[in-house]
């Protein structure tokens, strides 16, 4: 009886992650942005509308380092924050 398996019959075809999922930041390239965002959420009783600028900066970091797909900020809901303007009170 043979115990060897034939792995050559099928070829693995990698595919990109589904929209909305992205790789973890194993090297901590955006850790400071994440920590700044999380501190803002904590300081503002988790009212995420008050931390939109920090969220935008974190996502920009991820896009710049290819940890997520490059998307226009307007498409991500940050059109009003482009150029440093923010409607949320600090």
UniProtKB/TrEMBL annotation:
User: Is Disulfide bond among this UniProt entry's keywords?
Assistant: yes
Q: Which InterPro entries match?
A: CHCH, COX19, Cys_alpha_HP_mot_SF
Q: Which Pfam families match?
A: CHCH
Q: Which GO terms describe its cellular component?
A: mitochondrial intermembrane space
Q: Which residues form the CHCH domain?
A: 30-64
Q: Where is the composition biased (Polar residues)?
A: 1-12
Q: Which GO terms describe its biological process?
A: mitochondrial respiratory chain complex IV assembly
**Region annotation Disordered: where it falls in the sequence:** 1-20
Keywords associated with the record:
Cytoplasm, Disulfide bond, Mitochondrion
Primary location recorded for the protein, binned into one broad class: cytoplasm
The keyword Cell membrane is annotated on this UniProt entry? no
Which protein family is it in? Belongs to the COX19 family.
**What is the annotated localization of this protein?**
Cytoplasm; Mitochondrion
State what protein this is by name.
Answer: Cytochrome c oxidase assembly protein COX19
């Amino acid at each position: 009886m043979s115990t060897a398996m034939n792995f050559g019959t099928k070829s693995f075809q990698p595919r990109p992650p589904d929209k909305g999922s992205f790789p973890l930041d194993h090297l901590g390239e955006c850790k400071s942005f994440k920590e700044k965002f999380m501190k803002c959420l904590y300081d503002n009783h988790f009212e995420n509308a008050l931390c939109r600028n920090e969220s935008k900066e974190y996502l920009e970091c991820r896009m710049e380092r290819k940890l997520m797909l490059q998307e226009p900020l307007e498409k991500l809901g940050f059109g009003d924050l482009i150029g440093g303007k923010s409607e949320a009170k600090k």
